[in-house]
Amino acid sequence: FLVHKLDRFSRNTQDHLAIRQALLKYGTKLRSCSESIDETPEGEFMGGIHSLVAQFDNARRAQRTKQGMIERVKDGFWVWAPPLGFHKPHQGKKTHIVPDPKVAPFVRMAFDEYAKGGRTYKAMAAFLTRQGLRTKRGKPIKQQEVQKMLRNPAYCGIIKAFGGEWSGSFDPIVSRSLFLSCQQKPGSISVLSATRSDENPSYPLRKIVVCAECGRPMTGSATRGRKGKRYPYYHHWNRECSAARSIPKQEFERAFLAHLELLKPNPR
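RE: above sequence
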């Protein structure tokens, strides 16, 4: 197996040794056009030295690259692929991302509609798809992408990365107040849960309503009485939560409907 140089064969010592052993298992010898290596003790020693040098060089480059990214982030630059709704009008390291005039209105619409309340991420994805929003690949947006978008502070001009937060030097798509209004507060009762996986028609509120004490989502199940009769309950299992208890299904759903009666949409 002929390579120009060992750092083109592997940049990790463990990989180098593992692949070389696999080649030898099938009677294949490793040879380099630039270094002297063979199956003698001296040749194997030099091969190990070259692989260590390649690994060190690779790690040093990665460290320099990361440090360079951190410094640019501190200056307010977005150093990754632009999120949906942003684009780079010109290529280059000193180019800021800017709101895409064709897509940014959809993103702003998503935040506005979500802030009104009453929609899950799944419902938001269906709504935005009907309005005409598509991903960068031209596909309908999914609920996971909606959740990621509504939780990304870059849309209000904040870069959160490398364990810190910095103000971006680019124009935001939404205001910070609107972004914060779309973030669910832990411990609040909300119908805006992330996803409704494993839907159960017998317990329509499971994973939608969360405990106001610990923030865990409520689930539902039924217990069987002595005579075989089943009694449905809503509950959540958290021994550390002082509010954890089982609530009869009908009682729980009546309380939820009473709560809905208190909710009034704003004029928008």
